[in-house]
Amino acid sequence: MPELRQNLATREWVIIASERARRPNVYAEAPERLLSGNRPTFDPGCPFCPGNEELDLEVSRHPAEGSWQARVVRNKYPALAEEGPVLRRNNGVVRTITGVGYHEIIVETPLHNTFLGLMDVPAVTIALQAFLDRGRQIAADPRMEQIVFFKNHGERAGASLAHAHSQVIGLPIVPGDVRHRIEEARRFFDDTGQCVFCTMLEYELAGRQRVIAENEKFVAFVLYASSSPFHIWIMPRDHRASFLNIDPADLPMFADIVRNVLHRLYTRLNDPDYNLVIRSTPVKEPENGYFHWYMAVVPRLSRTAGFELGSGVWINPTIPEDCAAFLRD
Amino acid sequence: MPELRQNLATREWVIIASERARRPNVYAEAPERLLSGNRPTFDPGCPFCPGNEELDLEVSRHPAEGSWQARVVRNKYPALAEEGPVLRRNNGVVRTITGVGYHEIIVETPLHNTFLGLMDVPAVTIALQAFLDRGRQIAADPRMEQIVFFKNHGERAGASLAHAHSQVIGLPIVPGDVRHRIEEARRFFDDTGQCVFCTMLEYELAGRQRVIAENEKFVAFVLYASSSPFHIWIMPRDHRASFLNIDPADLPMFADIVRNVLHRLYTRLNDPDYNLVIRSTPVKEPENGYFHWYMAVVPRLSRTAGFELGSGVWINPTIPEDCAAFLRD
Known about the structure:
Two copies of one chain form a homodimer.
Chain A: E1 3-6, E2 13-16, E3 58-62, E4 70-74, E5 88-90, E6 95-98, E7 102-107, H1 121-139, E8 146-153, E9 165-171, H2 176-192, H3 196-207, E10 211-214, E11 218-222, E12 232-236, H4 251-269, E13 274-279, E14 294-299, H5 306-311, E15 314-316, H6 320-328
Helix pairs in contact in A: 1-4
């Protein structure tokens, strides 16, 4: 019997289509996709490889001195413009805001043939430090309301360049989707006095059916109401609304679990395409008891179609507990 | 300068990325994609071609007597099961509902090498009559809360079979996404005494910059806040909350505009992949002043990636007014 499951935090329903259910292993890509041997360490035509630094406008490099391990550059085709005031126009029907904001690339390694799941923890930590530093700087711009960190890994996930990188966009608005999630979290807090994300984490740790990795500071689990195969949340054990307020001393632990999860996807599913996003509270909101930042990892192994578009309900043809067991082993 | 635009009805923001903007004609597919000559009228291996009717469980045929012009069959791999009660489980964290519902295919023509955009209006009317009849029957099942009609046209839109068909899913819940849109519409009505969709339609008809087709009963326009290139709404001029309450006498006019819009996409963009959905009020809601049914047509010409996933904000690399002009000519 198929089952509808609700995500407690977002209140979104998914259909776990057990009648069509497929074993997790059918989602493994061909082993030929694995990086080893397929790509050179250095590609002279790659804008993100060392030696081509002048091709993009550099924002920062990490470490600041010596050869860089991570770099932040401006996106060559930015979705938003950095200069200019936030101007609103509203004639009662048409609402417009000038598209000011930031759109930057975080190059996560100088090497052309590696990525976060294959790097060591100190190298991943440097990349995540670049996320944090840059996020804090963008947040200091009074025009900014929301910062979105994301990664498109592989063509199906929207990547156009192979060299490992993430992106950060600073927006002059709080997106409706973000506002909606915060309102749901606040409602849960009003009803129960608890953070809905802490509640979910506690439940996952009690049952352990969907937990795939953990360390002292973070837990990774396949979502109970996964909208697609291998839909994963990486959640800090410490309650904190904003990623930007993370204790920098916790970054190596964050790096450890990110590397662990991406390494599992790489080895168990042969480097699938995926998106990764950090969900965090709007930059002008104070720390609070109800929102809890996390990272979502969403492999692009099934296609969304008209039904998802028309209903917001996703059909997931895998059993989340099976996906977790497959990644755990 | 890029611009953020808000959809008045959904309150979703999109980024109109004018700095990356591409001319509408770059989205035209190769003319080789056009059906003419590429496919036979009849494919003996196609489950939806005449002669293979026994391969699927038939629900209804239209007309009921003689050779059929449209047929409704059960989906062979249904996401939901028809039999059984709606049972809810809720332990405070985990919420589950049994996956009961309908998942059916509307085969829109007996011919293997045509589709709604190439059929004549009487033939499209018969297909839409099948939508309506079947929708009303499903709505009569007291377990059902929402009916979603949708089409996946082409592989990138999620279609696995080429023969022209749509799908209908009956759900035992009102999806959060639907509820959210209704709440926004009700809020607009409370504030202004008007239907937000009627207001948008009136605005489009006053300016005409984005209108691409119209007849006595319907108007088609590219959305002011299009989330992707050529994002189109087909809206009835008459205010009505549910598609299921359409006057059957209006179906030929609906068929006329659907055919018109899909024909334009076919000839101007060389048969792009697209999704099509009907947005309608939940089946148990009465007719009301604030919600207004419509059909959305969303060509799959750009890819959603991590940013859209993480923010709910879409980046549209085209100017909606240019897309409308391109389809109008």
